Amino acid sequence: MERAIRFYKNAKHEWYADIPEWGGDIADLQMVEGADELLNWIAIAGDECKLLMADAPIKNAEILDLVYAREENLGGGGDYLLEKFRGEFKNHKLWLCHVTEFVFKQLPERIYFREIG
Predict the structure, then answer these.
(1) Under 8 Å CB-to-CB from 55, ≥6 apart: which residues?
(2) Spatial distance between the Cα atoms of 117 and 108, rounded to a whole number of angstroms
(3) What is the pLDDT of residues 60-114, one digit of tens each?
(4) Are strands 48-54 and 2-9 parallel, antiparallel or unpaired?
(5) Other C-beta atoms within 10 Å of 112: how many?
(6) Residue-wise pLDDT tens digits, 13-68
(7) What Pfam families is this protein classified in (predicted)?
(8) Which of 19, 85, 102, 109 has the smallest number of CB atoms closer than 10 Å to its CB?
(9) DSSP tag of 5
(10) How far is Cα 14 from Cα 33, in angstroms, rounded to an integer?
């Protein structure tokens, strides 16, 4: 499954995923616990970016590996590891909440992503 997702910063410089069909609380779409830092790297000084995300390999993709699936009482979703980013060793840990399961219909073992125009 592939999906293009726009991410944007609000006036408080907090990152959010733009998922129009999400029927839950907007707070669930906030990118926190390392995901916000990754978006800062991708967008550099910008306040939005668009990523092609997939649960199967895509060309020129960065890779997030699932290291721990969280129980619902811990926010659900999963803790992922970004070993390298743009060829540079990062070993960056981040959390993607239960919205990830909504988007992918599961919690992928690997998420492939790359920036698109």
Answers:
(1) 1, 104, 106, 108, 110, 111, 112
(2) 24
(3) 999 999 999 999 888 899 999 999 999 999 999 999 999 999 999 999 999 999 9
(4) antiparallel
(5) 19
(6) 999 999 999 999 999 999 999 999 999 999 998 999 999 999 999 999 999 999 99
(7) DUF6717
(8) 109
(9) E
(10) 12
Confirm if 61 and 81 have CB atoms less than 8 A apart: no
Report residue 78 as tokens: 């999963």
Q: Report d(CA 61, CA 66) in Å as an integer.
A: 16
**Residue at 70: amino acid letter:** R
Q: What's the pTM?
A: 0.94
Domain boundaries, the chain: 2-116
Helices (H), the chain: 35-43, 99-104
- Give the CB-side neighbour count of residue 40, counting CA atoms within 13 A: 10
